[in-house]
Each structure stands twice: as C-alpha cells, then as structure tokens.
Design brief:
Number of helices: 3
Order of helices and strands: EHEEEEHEEEHEEEEEEE
Distance between the termini: 49 Å
CATH architecture of the largest domain: 2-Layer Sandwich
Radius of gyration: 23 Å
Strand content: 35-45%
Number of strands: 15
Number of domains: 2
Shape: elongated
Structural class: mainly beta
C-alpha cells in the first residue's frame, strides 16, 4: 500500500484530514487514550494514501511538508498502517505495555552516579526513564529519583 506521511501544523491534524478527505484522499490519524484523555499517536503527522497527484497534498492548507525520498514521497513499509489499524480497539490504538524492569518493593542496587553502590527499595516510576528509589539515609527512607539505566537488581 502506498502510504506516505505529511507533517502538518500543530493542532491542525484533524482539519487537514478533513480537507484531504474532501479531495478524495484516504487518510489515517491514529489516536490513543492516555489516562482518560484522547491524544494523537503521532502529533503533527498524518498518514495519507497516495497513488497519483501527491502534490495536491502539499498545497493543502496547514501542511508544512511531506516526508520525501528523493523527488518522490517516502513510502511507509507495506504493513505499517494495517498493523496500527489491527491494534485498534474502539477507535484507539492499543500500545504494548512496557516490560516492567522492577517490581514495587524490590531491592535494587545503584550502579552509577553519586549513590553508586548503595542499595535501595524500588518505589515506582517518576517519569519517562526515571525511577523513584527509597534509600536509607541517616536512619530514614528518603525518596531519590534516578535514571533507569543507573539501576540494577540487587
């Protein structure tokens, strides 16, 4: 399938999709649900099926560029869009859950940084690639936030 990618102005993805659909282009704008909020899986990007006349997409209002391969639109791998669509449930793409590296309460060892060599207790994620660890400092459990790659199982 000749799916290509358009980059559009922020917050204009849905409008561009409607405008392209009026020009008879097939489009796909994958959405996800994060904590009861609807978000776009790829903000500022829109997939469009292009057989001919791809330049008409470039002249659509709010389109900033088309991802290109030389003088022609770059093509996504054949199964990319169909695999995303197959993961949809109720109109939202279901993403695979990340494999949990540590369990709450697990003993861990800090392998880098100021606390290198210290043992602590895993207390959950604190952000993207950031983990909260409880360290025993001066007789108290003190929460410290560290990069994921700085931790290992004890």
């Amino acid at each position: 399938m000749p799916w290509s990618v358009l980059q559009v102005e922020p917050q204009r993805e849905r409008l561009v999709r409607v405008l392209l659909m009026r020009k008879s282009f097939e489009t796909y704008l994958p959405r996800i649900r994060v904590r009861q909020r609807v978000q776009l899986l790829f903000p500022s990007y829109l997939f469009v099926w292009i057989e001919q006349q791809w330049s008409a997409c470039l002249w659509c209002p709010h389109v900033t560029q088309m991802l290109m391969s030389g003088n022609h639109p770059a093509r996504l791998p054949e199964n990319f869009v169909s695999e995303l669509k197959n993961r949809e449930r109720g109109g939202f793409v279901r993403l695979p859950r990340p494999a949990a590296t540590f369990r709450l309460g697990q003993r861990i060892r800090i392998t880098r940084g100021s606390f290198e060599g210290q043992l602590g207790v895993y207390d959950g994620m604190s952000g993207k690639e950031r983990e909260r660890v409880l360290l025993d400092l001066l007789g108290q459990a003190v929460p410290v936030v560290l990069p994921t790659q700085s931790l290992a199982s004890a």
